[in-house]
Amino acid sequence: MITVITGATAGIGAAAAEEIARAGHDVVLIGRSRARLDSVAARIENLTGRRPDTHAADLASFTEVRTLAGELLDRYERIDVLANNAGVMTPKRETTADGHETMMQVNHLSGFLLTNLLRERLVASGGRVVTTSSRAAKSGRLDPTDLDRKARRWNGWLQYSDTKQANALFTVELARRGVTATCFHPGVIRTGFAAGTLLMKIYGLIPGYFKTPEQGASTLVRLATTSDGADHSGRYFSEQGVPSPVPEKMEDPALAAALWTASLAATGLPAETAV
Ligand SMILES: NC(=O)c1ccc[n+]([C@@H]2O[C@H](COP(=O)([O-])OP(=O)(O)OC[C@H]3O[C@@H](n4cnc5c(N)ncnc54)[C@H](OP(=O)(O)O)[C@@H]3O)[C@@H](O)[C@H]2O)c1
Fold this sequence. Notes:
Bound molecules: NADP nicotinamide-adenine-dinucleotide phosphate
Distance between the termini: 23 Å
Radius of gyration: 17 Å
Helix content: 40-55%
Number of domains: 1
CATH architecture: 3-Layer(aba) Sandwich
Oligomer: single chain
Shape: globular
Strand order of the largest sheet: 3-2-1-4-5-6-7
Largest sheet: 7 strands, parallel
C-alpha cells in the first residue's frame, strides 16, 4: 500500500506517517524542508527497517505542487492513500507568489490541485483521500467568490476556519464525484501549529487540554488503514473518531459545488479536469 502524506515533517503528519508505516504501508513523505524530511525518514527506517521515500515541495507554490504530482505519477504505479494533512495558521495576512492568501492556498487549494492531478491514479488504485480538517470548520463562513477574504473582514482565525470548512466541503464533493474521501478533526494537539497565538496560549493554561501528536494522528491512521476510510466516504470524523453530524454549511452540496468551481479557477485547472 502506498500512502502519500503531506505535512509529514512535523506534528500530526509525522506521527501518522510513523504509525501508518508500522501498519505496513510504504509511506511517502512530503514536506518543505529536505533536512526535516530526512530526519523523519530516518526515524521511520529505524522503527520499520524500511526507509520511506521523500519529496520536497512547498505547497505555497502551485508550480511546486505540479512538479510534485509529476514526480509521484512517474514513480508510483498505484497510490492507495493521499493524506492532505499539511496546514498553517498565519496570524498576519500573507500572500503567496501565486497571488492567494497563504492559508487558503496551503490548506485547501494546493490539496485540491494535488488531488485532482493524482485522481486518476487514486481511483484506478481503489484509493482514498483523507484530509485533516478541524472543528474550526464549524465556524467557517466560506464564500467561494471571495476565498481570500479580500472583500470581507480578514483575521487569522476567520480565514483559517474558512480553509478548514473548505476541507470538509472538498471531501463532500470528492465523494459525490466518486472519489473515496473522508476528513477529520484531530483534537487540540501540541504541535508547531499556531504556536504563539493567544488562543494556543490560553489552551496551554488548561491542564491536560493539549493532546499528543500521536493522539492527533490516530483518526488519520484509522481512516488510512481500515475500512472506515472507505465505508464512510464524504463524512467528517470528530475527535472521538466517529462520523459526525456537521453543520449544513460543511456539507451543503450547492456550496461544495461552488467551491469546486472556484478552486478549479484559482488553481488554473480547466473545468473539464473535474472529477
Ligand atoms: N494542532 C492542532 O491543534 C490542530 C487542530 C486541528 C487541525 N489541525 C490541522 O492539522 C494539520 C497538521 O498540523 P499540525 O498540528 O501537525 O502542525 P505542525 O506541527 O505545524 O505541522 C504542519 C505541517 O504542515 C507543513 N507545512 C506547512 N506549510 C507548508 C507549506 N507551505 N508547504 C508544505 N508543507 C507545509 C509543515 O511543514 P514544515 O515542517 O516545513 O513547517 C508541517 O509538516 C493542519 O492541517 C492543521 O490545520 C491541527
